[in-house]
Predict the 3D structure of the following.
Amino acid sequence: MEARSRNGLGASALASLHESWDDLVRLFANVTFGVFLLAVWAVLTLIGVVIDQGKDPTYYAQNYAPPLARAILRLDCDNIYHSAAYIGILGLILCSMAAATFTKVIPRRIPRLNPVKIDAIPLHAKIAVDEPVDAVRERLVAFFSQRGWQVRKREFGGTEWAFADKNNWARRGVLVAHIGFLIIAIGTTIYWAKGYSGQFTVLSGQTATIPESGAKIALQRFAYRIDPIRTKSGIVYQPIDYVSNATVTGRDGVGRQAVIRVNHPYDVDGVDVYQSTYGFAIDFQLTKDGRPVAGPDHPLKEGEAFIVDGTGRSIQYARFVGTIDRATGQPGLDPRPNDPGVVIQAFDGDQPVGSALIPLGTAVDLGAGYRLEAARYILYSGFQYRYDPGIPVVGIGSFVLLAGLCISFYFLPARLFVLVRERAEGGTEVGIAATTVRGYDVFEERFGEIVAALRRTHGVKTTEVPAAAALGTA
Amino acid sequence: MDPTRQSIDQVLLVVGISAYITGALVLLAYFLTRRPLLRTIGMPIATIGCVAQILELGARWWMTGVWPLTNLYGSLSMFSAMAVAIFLIFAVKYDLAFLGGPVLAAAAIALGYATTWNEGTMPAVPALQSYWIKIHVPIVVTSYAAFMVAACVSAIYLLKAGMERRYASRGLRGVIATAGGPKLDVSMNAYAATADDMLRTSRDETPAITQAATAGDGLAQWLAGLPTLARLDVMQYRIIAVGLPLLSLGIITGAMWAKEAWGAYWQWDPKETAALASWIIYAMYMHLHTRPEWRGSRTAWISVIGFISIMFCYLGVNIWISGLHSYKM
């Protein structure tokens, strides 16, 4: 007795669970719910456009009102595209698409061939023809077949109906688009699971290694071209080309000459290496009371700093100045190193205590007997690398999605219901109605053209359109 | 560019912008008065403007050897040319000349604004030196243009639907009391309606406007002459159905280019994400348009919001937000 009761409870719990599951699936398959999720996705995406992403927390504190800066940081809006909320909404959208695909899109069959009340369908017309019924039926079949309609005849209660279908295959357009979206999601997941990317810089004459693959890139020479162009608002120094000449050594241990420039990545063992940045590394020399002392142990790149031993102060190489305007002593517009210099910034702990522009080859007094000279510059090249085995999958998904959109938009599945009857007053009446998967309005013009063509084809002598065809809402 | 070539460029630009301004005025007058003569004059002017602009972009390319869409001037110029071209195609195919006024006015504003970014011809920066620029940029700009034309249809839809609500809520007592002058045959005045057009004129979805028009209300008569709401909705859908696949293709080709130039097909760059947001909004439109209860004013509003998002993506991100797409000049 107790066991039976327990079984009953179990069955009822199972039924309740089943019901809840069905409710959940219904909710996720609901178009309006799907659109709500899309709206949230759009809003989150736009937040990421408006708020700078991936900056240091101090950046937000400096650039936004304190409450807003706090909200940005607490709600992960500083890195929104990798936040739990963003990934969560993408997950919900995929669930919604899957639910809609399996409960609505796939089960949707081509509607059965059933008779209809012609007058009850908003898009309908009636044509009177002064010819016998059989002849009209024959000509109607020929008329629709010639225009690419698939015509099928059925008899219901002794009355013959003709059904003409067009673009039935296109009913799967939405399914194709959803499948494309899912393939893209799979492709991006493959990158997350197996891919990697990174960036590195390498000075001319030096070698860098891609840690994940072990490939070596020895930079022989980096070259750039910047041209002065006269425009309406003055001279503009336009970058024209950046190019790295390197020897790349992959897994096979064979060094290969490579020319890497923007838009022309180099493939080494499936890892693409991209030209991304360049810069001027500076060889600084530090002296104290005229004697060389330990300064930076390598040429500094922009943004790098070194500590002056025993002072608690640090010197940062802030930026490179290609041309110093001799008249003003300030940085000139030309970025090319005609008369170069560097801007350095001194820090006492974290506090900036001053900055200076030093022409290359001259020394600046740092105090306490220290002097710093920017001795020479060395060009360096910045590369990005990326291994992404998901790219072909994303590519396929993109084109499947696009194909699905085009099928859905440009191929309208439509059905015509045609009933040919004898008229009491003699002759034949052709009743014709149309339905489509996207309502009636979208097919109105085409239907009008079909009716007009039918009239022409049948050479109607007297045309009667009883109770003008009405258009209703879909 | 030498002075002779520069003057050809200038002449074509002046012809384009003058044609848009004149065409906009003529077709706006047609929009308001519906005199067929204005339409007969306005449509060829619009065509001349569009052709002159396309020639100007082509001439720039031919004379300088630099692809003209490497800067904001070039892309805005193409945006206005494509908007007018899309309008002309739809106007010829679906009898939408009434749309010419707003579209040409917007094209003239876009082209006028473009000239403020015209710094002459410059070689492209390294990131733009790719065959992808000849594929990606025209596709994306054409999609923006399609959304602009769609937004114009949506605005007219919302105007008519809004006025219908207003007439319906106001009732007809006032209208009938103040009506005077000759009655207007609404169906004869309509853009789309013809004598044997039994399919279109049969359903009256704006009965309050029709009643007010029959009672002699001038504004109602003008509104009644606009295409039906159903037809405006279908036109808006058809134009967005041109824009959305183009935007999708634009995002895909942009991703392919990004893969080649920056190392990743998606960088979460502000321009990319703003385009994605716009795509999502139009995807929402397409989903909601399948629901009869949402079709109409709601989807028209989404179309307008989508276009605002497109403009933010196109101009706002380029001008105000720095990122990988900040070429500006």
